[in-house]
Automatic annotation (TrEMBL):
Belongs to the peptidase S8 family. One of its GO terms (biological process) is proteolysis. The chain crosses the membrane at residues 27-47. InterPro entries: Ig-like_fold (IPR013783), Peptidase_S8/S53_dom (IPR000209), Peptidase_S8/S53_dom_sf (IPR036852), Peptidase_S8_Asp-AS (IPR023827), Peptidase_S8_His-AS (IPR022398), Peptidase_S8_Ser-AS (IPR023828), Peptidase_S8_subtilisin-like (IPR050131), Peptidase_S8_subtilisin-rel (IPR015500). It comes from Candidatus Taylorbacteria bacterium RIFCSPHIGHO2_02_FULL_43_32b. Residues 180-447 form the Peptidase S8/S53 domain. One of its GO terms (cellular component) is extracellular space. This is Peptidase S8/S53 domain-containing protein. Pfam families: Big_7, Inhibitor_I9, Peptidase_S8. Keywords: Hydrolase, Membrane, Protease, Serine protease, Transmembrane, Transmembrane helix.
Length: 1042
């Protein structure tokens, strides 16, 4: 079974790998599923063949340590573009129906609430025209997205939800008054432990929102499982769940459908307060961000998983809005959640360690953040990550009424979504984006800082230098009439900049409705320098760097309020910036009337890239400001200055000299085709890369002006590098044409043959490789097959007795788990069916196998394990087989020391001295074997005699006990002799021990205390022991007088 796990896991990781190289594809969508799963019901089979049950991705998997490492290093599932499918975002007020009619399109999804637009299949011939339509804001490619994977669960206890006066976790089914949308694989709305209020599906394989995968149901249970004395309890027990199914039962879904789910939440924003998204990808999607931003503007708090790729959420370039962002986690509009390891439900770091990290540390798979974009509306010590929550080994509800354990940031996010629901149920919902950001900031401010997590290292991930806090659900709500205190920071102001060594004034105010003025109790901390001071006013200097200053106060009942500001302390040493002119080159000769483009770059050690501050001048006159300016000159020689000034008023200057002359005699440009090669041939519909270079003596590189044309199809593109596939059949002459500014032209040409694709009639080849013909199988068997085809294999289906067993494999080597226990004993026929990519199929040769259950053996005697030499040992056992019945008489007994002992269900035998491993083994009629074993020790018993030097002792007398150890009347040296002395009252008053000498003698002494032990008969219980011998025991007595 372990090998089966490894095979299926390796296949899943082939699919689920999130590439860190952003050049691999414009979109990289990944699974934020859990990293591990232990099901309480039957195993499932979901995303990409093996998501959840054994590996990482959405909700359901069991990882071994090496698999976790692989998962952490590269858990990036690249989502594939959906060919010719696009998301069209329209300008405000435009009607989608009219645009669709204009271009002959049929919408798959209509968006009216979060964004204005639609998704549709759009042929290439109409795409460019659609993009240029004035009614269209922008167009994005549609892609496939994957879901990222009564006890009080440890995560609920760790964030103190069980201490919340609003959650009221006490086994009584009181329900939190909040509505939470779960955008996921759906939710099992028949689960007895969930309060599913609404369920809807936009996935292609469902109409009602039922979860056929398990991930969404697990997330929903962590948010709001009922407090009803069964199963588990959620963070916000009984909150109303809106099951919004956007991912199908394999855990996949189109980006356009995710946007439709957000559109639905926005439509119901007057009811839904919180939305959880334990899914995401790597890339850049303006339409999804726009949709979420609109929904946030309606007052919905979006809580999202940070991702399981052990990477910066802004990607390798640490910049928001680029193709390597993890989204929606990187969006400033959402509440992003990382995952910690928690194994005991409490702080302190005392819980057991896991392969994901030590107890009370950030999980090794979790994404992190060191940078935050200025557009982020909240301030968090975790940069662009708001908060952390337990995400490892989380127990929650699962599909089909079951329960399961999973790990991943998918499991952390719903802890926070539930906590937000608790906060809103007491403090009220947001009505706009400002309200949403106020809720996020409050929860960040009330978090448990990493310094309070426990004794373990607070940041085990060396790349993560910004320690976000842990969600503290117990501190979010006060319950009853007590009001939370208020606090504000007057100085320093947020975003202030100070010089290193400068004294900084700290001024704050705090008050509480019940306790009055709490200003004197304000505690000030810095994210860099730690504890700064206490009280409402003081001054001190800080270390250089970007500080998050926190002021915290607690009332007499322990409820807290926190205010934060972000300031910077810079080095007082200001370096001179550097500036360089990239173009034109010094000494360039240009013609009159030419628009001259000046491009520059400026860098400052303190301020970074300050190219936007470059000032371009000629003879004191400003020509423009920025990294790029364009100027037209008359005839003459011009020296152009580029200067830049940093924030410390240090200036750098450089210059370039150009000559502008009357237009000389013009020469024709030149052009050369690089690809495709001459006389190339392709199949019709194949995408062909066209590349060329063009230059002109007067104008330089003019490659971008190249125009491409076909002798059959006419013009088809411009530029030095493009892809095109819509050629007609035939032999094309491909022209690359170039024209300079004075109208002179040149061209280059190659021949390209476009052939019709021939229908594929060649069937694939397939054969069963395991199990082999006539083999005997039992339990779970890994069936495997080999397959090949000239056009590629689409999938391989496995059959037993001519019936499809329900699962196919699309990645070589092709395997599947076959549970033979579901089939009758005897002969069965297995086969494999291979399908190629054009629909041809082949059925393999039939392979006959025999299903035979493994027999069982149970040893019932002996029940003791130590015997004397020569003593007969009675062995008894029974053996049963489903097919052959009672096999007890066939049991073969053996010893690792004495060899074969005999046959049968009962056997008496004396054994040689030593420790024996006794094995009872049986074979059934088809050669299936089973065995059981036990350990028996045969050794001489030690003889023990003992006496006291007197029979009666007075108080404080010394009792001398002499013991002799022997075996077969021969003294035994080196034996350990222990003795316990028991008073007349039955209390043990002494423990004595010693080792026998060469005469087998050991003397033990003891001072009697009859005042405490009493007068009467004292007992001495002696035991002698030595390796290779059975223990000897003896009891003697003596009397004590007061």
């Amino acid at each position: 079974m372990a090998k089966l796990h490894e095979r299926l896991l390796s296949k899943f990781l082939f699919y689920a790998k999130w590439h860190k190289n952003p050049l691999h594809a414009p979109f990289h969508f990944g699974v934020f599923f859990g990293l591990s799963l232990v099901l309480t019901a039957t195993l499932i089979y979901a995303v990409t063949n093996w998501p959840n049950v054994y590996a990482s991705a959405a909700a359901v998997a069991a990882f071994d340590k090496s698999a976790v490492k692989n998962e952490q290093a590269s858990q990036k599932m690249e989502s594939l573009k959906i060919a010719d499918n696009y998301i069209v975002v329209l300008n405000r007020g435009e009607r989608g129906a009219e645009v669709q009619k204009s271009f002959g399109l049929k919408a798959k999804q209509e968006y009216r609430h979060a964004i204005n637009g639609f998704s549709a299949y759009i042929p290439k011939g109409r795409l460019e025209a659609l993009k240029k339509d004035k009614r269209v804001s922008y167009v994005e490619e549609d892609v496939t997205v994957y879901a990222l994977a009564q006890a009080v669960p440890s995560g609920v206890r760790r964030i103190k939800a069980n201490q919340s006066n609003v959650a009221l976790i006490d086994g009584v089914d009181n329900r939190v008054n909040a509505d939470v949308a779960i955008i996921d694989t759906g939710v099992d709305f028949t689960h007895p432990d969930l309060n599913v209020y609404q369920h809807v599906s936009f996935a292609v394989d469902s109409t009602d929102g039922m979860d056929g995968h398990g991930h969404g149901t697990h997330v929903a249970g962590t948010v709001a499982a009922l407090d009803n004395n069964i199963g588990v309890v959620g963070v916000a027990p009984g909150a109303r769940i809106w099951a919004v199914k956007a991912l199908d039962n394999s855990g996949a879904g189109a980006l356009s459908i995710i946007i439709k789910a957000v559109d639905y939440v926005t439509e119901h924003a007057d009811e839904i307060e919180v939305a959880n998204m334990s899914l995401g990808g790597q890339g850049s999607s303006g339409s999804l961000r726009q949709a979420i931003a609109t929904s946030v503007g309606k007052g919905v708090v979006y809580v999202v998983a940070a991702g399981n790729s052990f990477f910066e959420v802004y990607g390798g370039d640490s910049q928001l809005g680029t193709s390597d962002d993890f989204f929606p986690a990187a969006y400033p509009e959402v509440m992003t959640v990382s995952a910690i390891v928690d194994t005991d439900g409490q702080s302190g770091g005392a819980g057991v360690s896991t392969s994901y990290g030590e107890d009370d540390t950030l999980a090794k798979y979790s994404n992190w953040s060191n940078v935050v974009d200025v557009s982020n509306p909240v301030v968090s010590p975790g940069a662009s990550i708001d908060i952390a929550a337990p995400g490892t080994i989380i127990y929650s509800t699962y599909k089909n009424g079951a329960y399961a354990t999973m790990s991943g940031t998918s499991m952390a996010s719903p802890h926070v979504a539930g906590a937000v629901a608790l906060y809103i149920s007491e403090n009220g919902r947001a009505s706009d984006a400002t309200g949403v950001y106020r809720i996020r900031q409050s929860i960040i401010d009330l978090a448990e800082p990493q310094s309070a997590w426990g004794v373990n290292k607070t940041t085990p991930l060396s790349n993560d230098q910004k320690p976000e806090g842990l969600i503290d659900a117990g501190n979010l709500t006060t319950g009853g009439s007590n009001l939370r205190p208020t606090i504000s920071i007057s100085r320093p102001v947020s975003q202030a900049v100070f010089n290193e060594g400068q004294m900084i004034a700290f001024l704050g105010n705090a008050a509480d409705a019940e306790d009055g003025d709490l200003t004197a109790k304000i505690e000030w901390t810095s994210s860099i320098d730690g504890v700064l001071g206490k009280g409402g006013s003081f001054s001190r200097n800080l270390s250089s760097g970007d500080h998050v200053i926190s002021a915290k106060v607690s009332d007499s009942l322990g409820y807290s309020a926190i205010a934060t500001v972000r300031i910077s302390v810079v080095s007082s040493i200001n370096s001179v910036p550097s500036v360089s002119i990239l173009s034109p080159l010094n000494g360039a000769v240009l013609t009159t009337g030419t628009l001259v483009g000046f491009t520059g770059s400026a860098i400052d050690q303190e301020d970074g890239d300050i190219s936007s501050r470059i000032s371009w001048t000629f003879n004191g006159s400003v020509l423009g400001t920025g990294s790029d300016v364009n100027v037209t000159f008359g005839k003459g020689v011009f020296r152009i200055l580029a200067s830049v000034t940093d924030s410390g008023l240090k200036t750098a200057t450089t210059s370039v000299e150009i000559s502008v002359v009357d237009n000389p005699e013009n020469t024709a440009p030149s052009v050369s085709i690089i690809t495709p090669a001459e006389t190339s041939s392709v199949i019709k519909g194949t995408e062909v890369r066209f590349s060329a270079s063009a230059s002109d003596n007067e104008e330089g590189n003019i490659t971008n002006r190249i125009k491409w044309a076909s002798s059959i199809d006419g013009n088809f593109g411009t530029g030095g590098d493009l892809l095109y596939s819509l050629f007609s059949s035939g032999v094309h002459t491909i022209y690359a044409n170039i024209t300079d500014s004075n109208g002179l032209t040149s061209s280059d040409a190659v021949s390209l043959t476009v052939e019709e694709k021939q229908a594929d009639t060649v069937p694939p080849l397939v054969s069963v490789t395991y199990p082999s013909a006539n083999s005997v199988v039992s339990g779970v068997v890994t069936m495997s097959a080999s397959a090949s085809d000239n056009d590629g294999i689409d999938r391989v289906q496995f059959m037993v007795d001519g019936a499809d067993i329900g699962v196919s494999d699309s990645v070589a080597p092709y395997t599947i788990a076959w549970n033979t226990d579901d089939y009758t004993s005897g002969s069965h026929v297995i086969s494999a069916v291979a399908y190629d990519t054009t629909g041809n199929k082949t059925i393999s040769s039939l392979v006959s196998v025999v299903v035979d259950r493994v027999p069982t053996v149970t040893i019932t005697s002996p029940t003791e394990n130590t015997f004397l030499p020569g003593q007969a040992v009675t062995f008894r056992a029974s053996a049963m087989d489903k097919e052959d019945g009672d096999l007890s008489i066939k049991i073969k007994w053996s010893s690792n020391l004495d060899g074969i002992l005999g046959l049968g269900s009962s056997l008496s035998k004396s054994l040689s001295v030593g420790t024996h491993i006794i094995t009872a083994e049986v074979f059934d009629s088809r050669g299936q074997t089973a065995s059981a074993s036990l350990i028996v020790t045969v050794a001489n018993k030690l003889g023990l005699s003992a006496s006291t030097d007197k029979s009666i002792y007075n108080n404080k007398d010394t009792v001398k006990i002499t013991a002799l150890v022997s075996s077969n009347s021969v003294p035994v040296s080196g034996a350990f002799v222990s003795a316990t002395v028991v008073s007349p009252t039955g209390r043990q008053t002494a423990y004595l021990s010693g080792t026998s000498d060469s005469f087998g003698k050991v003397v033990l002494t003891y001072q009697i205390n009859t005042k405490s032990g009493g007068a009467g008969s004292y007992g001495v219980n002696l035991t002698a022991s030595k390796t290779g011998f059975a223990n000897g025991t003896l009891s003697i007595t003596f009397k004590g007088n007061k």
